[in-house]
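Issue 218. Parser rejects a valid record. Input:
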Amino acid sequence: MDKESLSFDEALKDESRQYMLASFQWLSFTSLVLLTAVGLNIALDPGLDLGLDTAFTMMLLPGTLCLLHLGLRFTRVSWSRSLGWNLFFLAVLVISWLISMSFLRSSGLLVLPGIETLSDVLSLAMAVALFPSIKLTAATVAPFLLYSAFYRYEVYPESIYFNVMRSLFMFLIIMSAQRVIFKWFQKAVRRNVEKRRLVKHFRRMALLDGLTGLSNRRHFDEILAQEIRASTRTGHPLSLILLDIDFFKRLNDALGHQAGDDCLRQLGQLLSDVAARPRDLAVRYGGEEFAVLLPETTLTGAVEVANRIAKLLAKAAIPHPDSQVAAHITVSQGLVQWQRGMDAAALLEASDAALYRAKEDGRNRYVQSTSPVGEMAG
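Output the parser choked on:
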């Protein structure tokens, strides 16, 4: 789906997913750094005779897991980027860290301050990585805080209330920070959604005529060039109708500019209904002049469209008290089919010449650029 079309809830869900997918990778790097720091501390501690073998054993389970996760991501295995796989990795990572911490504790490699520090660092890392999901944050932070509390209780069983309060306050602080950061994240996503909508709105307004809602001349020039390139490549027909409201200045003089604007709006709606196919384009070319671009349409098809426009105008019966050809609004139309070798300027020149002939020959009619005059139906 186009990101410009996403609602706030959809955008929040998408941004949260993208953030967490990147965060799982960051957790792998962070875990490897922590494991390396702890392993070096064990290996280089002169008071320990356990050396590199013990450090390697401690690092084996979470380290292998993180290296596997990073390897799959960097090799761009498709399923490794799914949220389900990464949630599985997260669960196994938490469990492997708890196992490694148990090994450190039972082997006497880290005493209480070291275990608590490692637990707190892991809790903060999980909170930073998973803040878009309060459930995941709570589910990954709680095991580490409970583990350090349990170890402290083993060492100092008489300070049970301190253990409980320390873990509880740490948990509440992390979860409160999660809510603060998530609200900021929501606000940033909302602003981004609003910015995309404004950009889309301004882009749309830059391509539309403000009065009629049709495409403007700028948009028409871009699409015309694209369709000529497409027809040059495929050989498919392309037709253009250039049309002008008959005696429009007299309408403004007789009924006022508001009536003239109403007439332009109604004609714009009518042309929008006529140009109903996905690639058809109705345009306010300038002033009271309009255009209808008809890809994959021969001149015969354009004649049918021109007659339909005349019939719909007759049916709409928009009053024109000072017209010399009818009691209602009418149009003169110049029709042309693109020929190989014609550029946009040549196509417009041919349709404009046909429109001029339609006016010269009495208005309220169409003229094909390669055939005699055809008087309007209706």
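Fixed in the parser; the record now loads. The two ends are 45 Å apart (CA to CA).
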